[in-house]
Here is the input.
Amino acid sequence: MGQVRHGSATTTHAVRAAIQRSQASLATLSRELGINPKTVAKWRKRATVEDLKTGPKAPHSTTLSEAEEAMVVAFRRHTLLPLDDCLYALQPSIPHLTRSALHRCLQRHGISRLPDIEGDKPKRQRFKRYPIGFFHIDIAEVQTAEGKLYLFVGIDRTSKFAITQLVDKADRRTAWEFLEHLLKAVPYRIHTILTDNGIQFAEQPRNRNTAWSRQMRFDMICDANDIEHRLTKPNHPWTNGQVERMNRTIKEATVKRSTTRATTSSGRTSPTSWPPIISPAGSRRSAGSHPTNTSPRSGRQSQTGSSSTRSTRCRD
Here is the structure.
């Protein structure tokens, strides 16, 4: 493809090259070529015959500081989130950040398009097939208007039967209590449970098989029910990918939903309790049966208990 000249161009690549090779004076070349002497002087000083890019030589944001711009770039490269998600996540830290300023910042650094970013995500592979009864368990943080809560999620790798429980703390006690609740709610035998290496589920690797190590209550319950407790490889969260994806689905479905609180006899407020419900994914309820503060697909709510539980079936 030949040279693409802008509308005000008075020279071509060949003319510019001739100017750079010529030993004649500026006035002589100006008369011969019929151009301004300043144009001759400009191209004689240039090392190339290409037009320079328009705009500032060192582009920078007029609304963001260097530190804020570095924060935006690091956040985008680490999370690989879409533009609007980055905006909502960064605005609490950078209140004056606008969508247009964020987009221009990402464009300047060449990361405005997610497909062009080569992240550290591993190649997606199909899950190995297992008989029904293989559960993935994980914990997700849920931000509410009243503070931070923790969502325990258990999902069967094969049947996609899922159990959730919302609690105030994510410690070892709530972990094994969720396991007991899971065993009662699942209508078939569980033979394997896969968790990460969090302190709620396992001793830290450096403390295992030492004189001070002891069996955790979570493992005791697994042994009592003839369940194999497996741990993911450290720093490999995608090994537990099915429940990680389930966490995201639940968060996306509840992030804009208000949370009803129940008052206990001691005066404390506690999360609303939902009884376990089994429903096929995509099922429709009859008109007029939608519960308060929930979507048509979510379960019924009651005002008892100190933790929130729900079970459902979901698609991949």
